[in-house]
Amino acid sequence: MKYIIYPIVFLWLSILPAQEIELLKNWKFTNYDYGGAFQKDFNDENWDSVTIPHDWAVKEDFNFTHDIQLTMVIQDGETKPKYRTGRTGALPYVGIGWYRTNYEVSASDLEQKVQLMFDGAMSNAKVYVNGNYVGERPFGYISFYFDITKHLTPDNNVIAVRLENFSSQSRWYPGAGLYRKVSVVKTNKTHVKTWGTFVSTPVITKKSATVNLDLEILGEGNCTVVNEVFTPQGVIAAKSSKEIKIDGEQKISEDFKIKKPKLWDIKTPHLYNLKTSILKEGKIIDTYTTPFGIRSIRFELDGFYLNDRKVRFKGVNMHHDFGPVGAAFHKELFVRQMKKMKEMGVNSIRFSHNPPAPEALDICDEMGILAIDEAFDEWQIGKVLNGYSKQFDLWAKKDLTDMILRDRNHPSVIMWSIGNEIMEQYQKDPNDITSYLNDIVKTLDTTRATTAGFNSANNALQSGMASTVDVAGFNYKPGIYHKIREHYPNLKFYASETGGSLSTRNSYKFPVNFDTAQTKRGTSLNTELYPDGQPGNYENTNVPWGYSPYKEFASQDYNDFVYGEFVWTGYDYLGEPSPYHTAKSRSSYFAPVDMVGMEKDKFYLYQSEWNEEAEVLHFYPHWTLPEMKGKEIPVVCYTTYEKAELFVNGKSYGIKTKQKQEVPEFLAENIEKEASGGTTLAQLKAYAIVWENVVYEPGEAVVVGYDKKGEKVGQTKRVTSGEPHSIKIESEVPTLNKGEVAVYIVSVVDKEDNICVLYNENMHIEVNGAATFLASGNGDPTNVQNLSKPERRLFNGQAVIFVKSNNEGAIGISVKSKNLNSTNTSLIVK
Ligand code: GAL
Question: Are residues 455 and 539 in the same domain?
């Protein structure tokens, strides 16, 4: 038999056997809890017709009465519970959802093994086939499968799924429904167990690599097991064949030598495939492909090593939603997010705080992004009333095990996180759950490090929790890294969450006060500073436990043994609109990229520090500030250049440089002092070029960048925008495939093509041709227009539209806003 291997195709087959049938179309859905909905002959004619992935809540109206939570955020120094709105996005994710679909099988299929696979179902799934209860899975983020063979009959079968979300179930928007892929996996009765391969690469030299395969086969009888390793080009690099007798279950371990291995690395994410075939009487009865990478990872006291090279985490945390599209997983939207993150210089992602969709890790493998796979946000002690703590005792072992079995072949995954800011820290983990979970991981994988994100550094250190995991993560503690090293010299650690400054795209507040314009611990609900829900945007407003990005840079530059950082977060997300839990906002403010994927100023800060290939010269504020005419404002420039000079209408404000501090001034005297907070001018000036007192005059501001020799190397201009003149609709991609989601950026511009940054009018959207309208958004967390209706207010001149292609041909998109209108037909669906 001749094998032709297409690596890309293999990726999408992922680690599943070949006969995977996606069940994405022809589902019926209702939010009503019909008693008999599990039964085969139940009449679901009047239910909605939906396709998977589906998020039942994101299409609904925002309402701040949804899921109001009474909570005390200990991290914030609160001593009494407070009511919070919008924490889960002010969307109706709470409630019951039923899904039903038909699935045809032939008589010969019944000779096979048929498994029903859910990549994740939000949440408390109960699954029925032909009226029979098949099983359940409470955790909304975990992949799970059931063997449904015995419930099937030839012809039509009915799959019914009941989901239920409780109020106060989450600290962010969890989504609702069958929001990830559902599939049926058909195999021979003798087959490679689902998630039954584990490929590791224990020895790697330039000349060769040892690839180890642990394989589990289920079934009966004598068979031949053939394993073939294919190079990234699809050429066979190694092969083995073994005769075995299976009696229920059989485990095999094999070593392969691969000559001149092509390493998986951040810039060269080479992927190999290991194809397992089971043969009976010379006939292939099952195949299973495991993509993997050849790479070494080491966790040393002075840093993390990938392929023997020290790599610092330039990381971001990512929640799982796609903003206006909600939690429904679309791989092209995840690719979009990752492209933007890579442009910013990101090399690693912490999937906070739960396992991602499996394709997200495939994409990290393909794009060369390191990943922390995180299991839990709660153990036995809850943070919210109906969170994971309710499931922990019964399910944690299985959930953690399945996360690792599913994900342990991904070269991108370097650490397993057993928890984020778990409340057990405060009681010094009396039941030693840290060891319990850590040990579970170690029985399944010793090639990667275990980790957890600790926010109560002192407690985690004193109780030994931090040293029970291989590598500790600390959230928001840049002031004490040096002290941790001093007192715990053998502890390896990184910053699992950093930042916490708040901003929205293109909104500036004056006067700018760098030293005091911050919330204080215990006052996170005090939103008086900027009551309109638009914080200062000079990175000078932060949540009480947070601080400016500069502070983290300064601490990590000084403490270069820290493995790096994961910014909270890469993208803004639905829910957690801290500090505006006051019926004001429904999404977060933390990220360098807003919820619709557009850069805020701090994107360029990270880019200037992290992206070694980019030449960055970005400054702010924008130059349309009528209320500031004749008044002084600070101008901040993020750049990779040595020096920069600001000109306002031709007048120079001087050539300036950054002013790095040898020893950051905020380092704490002792380890107990965990407090963070604030941005000082000195911290800012270490990572930005600042002109403090610039008299704002309409016209143009130009920043010129110079190299060390003083040669001009770059220039950026910002111009006071004129009257709105036209609307631009730009597609982010030139073509797309049928079924994919595409994104358009809409900008209102003046005659000279400058974005009218003060334009905040509504627009109406129409989509026709090869696509339908899916959602839109504008990056403003206070915007409560329905995300799925074709009306959107532009926010500071711009908005974003998501369309879903359903045919081949051109997509037509038109928008109208006041007396402006525009059409774009350039995007072609292949
Ligand atoms: C952390 C927490 C995150 C998020 C963040 C906001 O304490 O782990 O999930 O809530 O704060 O700053």
Answer: yes
Report the residue among 372, 420, 425, 497 best suited for mutation to probe ligand 1: largest number of ligand atoms under 8 A from its CB: 497
CB 302 within 8 A of CB 272: no
Token couple for 413: 């995954």
Percent residues over pLDDT 70 in the chain: 95
pLDDT at 677: 63
DSSP class of residue 62? Answer: P
Check pLDDT > 60 for residue 520: no
Let me know whether 118 and 241 are in one domain. no
Q: 389 with 349, same domain?
A: yes
Query: CB of 568 closer than 6 A to ligand 1?
Result: yes
**In a domain? residue 82:** no
Listed residues 660, 693, 719: the one ending a domain: 719
Q: Is the CB of 588 under 6 A from ligand 1?
A: no
Contact yes or no for 295/263 (Cβ under 8 A): yes
Q: Do 482 and 572 have their domain in common?
A: yes
218 belongs to a structural domain: yes
Does 757 fall in a domain? yes
Q: Is 797 in the pocket of ligand 1 (CB under 6 A)?
A: no
Q: Looking at the structure, tell me whether residues 515 and 654 fall in a common domain.
A: no
Ligand 1 neighbourhood includes 421 CB (under 6 angstroms): yes
Give the mutation target among 78, 421, 454, 572 for probing the ligand 1 site: most ligand atoms within 8 A of CB.
421
pTM greater than 0.90 (yes/no): yes
Mean local confidence (pLDDT), 453-461: 95
Indicate the number of domains in the chain.
5
Distance 615 CA to ligand 1 centre (A): 32
* SS3 assignment, position 417: strand
Phi-psi region of 609 (alpha: psi -120 to 50; beta: other; left: phi over 0): alpha
Q: Is the CB of 354 under 6 A from ligand 1?
A: no
Surface-to-core class of residue 696, CB atoms within 10 Å of its CB (0-12 exposed, 13-18 middle, 19+ buried)? buried
Instruction: Check residue 293 and give its pLDDT.
Output: 98
Confidence of residue 663 (pLDDT cuts 50, 70, 90): confident
Range of the domain at 39: 19-57+93-187
Query: What is the pLDDT, as a whole number, of residue 1?
Result: 33
Could you list the active site residues? 421, 497
Q: Is 519 in the pocket of ligand 1 (CB under 6 A)?
A: no
Question: Is the pLDDT score of 220 beyond 70?
Answer: yes
SS3 487: helix
- Which of 128, 138, 105, 118 lies closest to 37, judged by CA? 128
Continuous segment of H or E residues that includes residue 390: helix 389-407
Closest CA to 248 of 175, 193, 289: 193
Q: Give one DSSP letter per residue of 174-221, joined into a string.
A: ---BS-S-EEEEEE-SSEEEEEEEEEEEEEE-SSEEEEEEEEEEEEEE
Instruction: For residue 353, give the ligand 1 atom closest to its CA.
Output: 9
475 lines ligand 1 (CB under 6 A): yes
Residue 7 CA to ligand 1 centre (angstroms):
38
Residue nearest to atom 4 of ligand 1 (CA): 568
Banded model confidence at residue 797, pLDDT cuts 50, 70, 90: very high
CA of 496 to the centre of ligand 1 (A): 10
Give the confidence band of 515 by pLDDT, cuts at 50, 70, 90.
low
The pLDDT of 313-336, averaged and rounded, is 98
CATH code (residue 630): 2.60.40.10
Same domain, 330 and 371: yes
- Which of the listed residues 153, 187, 221 is the one where a domain comes to its end? 187
Q: How far is the CA of 581 from the centre of ligand 1 (A)?
A: 14
Between the CA of 175 and the centroid of ligand 1 the distance, in Å, is 18
For residue 808, tell me if it sits in a domain: yes
Q: Above 80 in pLDDT, residue 790?
A: yes
Q: Are residues 635 and 586 in the same domain?
A: no
- What mean pLDDT comes out for the span 454-473? 97
